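Researcher: Re-running this chain for the archive, since the previous output was lost when a drive failed. Same request as before.
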Amino acid sequence: MKTVGIVPNYDKEAAMGMVKDLVMFLKTKNCKPVLTYNIAELTGLSEYGVTKFELYSKSDFIVVLGGDGTLLDTGRKASKYGTPLLGINMGTMGFLASADGGDANETIEKVLKEEYKLEKRLMLESEISSDSDMPKTYTAVNDVCITRGVFTKITDYGIYVNDEYVATFRADGIIISTPTGSTAYNLSAGGPVLKPDISCIVLTPICAHSLHSRSIVVSADDVIRVEASFGSNGDIIMSMDGQTSVILNNGDSIRIRKSAHTVNIIKTNNVGFYDILRKKLISKGE
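Model: Regenerated structure tokens:
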């Protein structure tokens, strides 16, 4: 009997409304569906409630009902256990999903029959080193963004790769992105689109005050260091996937490297990356 976790976006009525039907469907397939205690209570399915640790570590795979944001959040939590994720798109973009909501049951059946492939997506680990505190680490699936606060003046961002000085960007911020995240904020800032299976990291300045600032692509095995000099000008913020953020102190050093963990995404269709790119981004502008 397979244990199948279900993680819905609780802010989306359609996602929450699908949970009960999905639980019943999984039971007909001789599976054990599990929900976090909070979601189980909200959906009236308390008998299927487990701790977050149990859901993320004990599930054979997790069905994620939501958009890319929900899948990113779930991916960070599940990555340390290697638990695969099956994305069912209930949002607008759905780059990471395997199917839309109406195809959920058919898609899950394919997974149960082992008719799928597993994509291992590179993650980033960022470490903040400070003179006044112990180092702190954070993980990201899409990107790590270091940006100025609302009332902070334009800032200099010194970039080092493997402790070799590369350049200083005078800009609103810098995006350090995985190939998965290259179609997110990196794309909006003018960075390149990268195929998800490429082993690299891209650095893209945000609104650089220069005529010659361009993105830089480095190896996934490189260690990137960012030094932001902002004195008493205001706040500098580091955010992970646009979902978790921390305020930096002047003089903090940020090191970003490939994480030891990956996000394992289940794909049940034969739709290629360029097909998705064309349908989600290119065709919409035509």
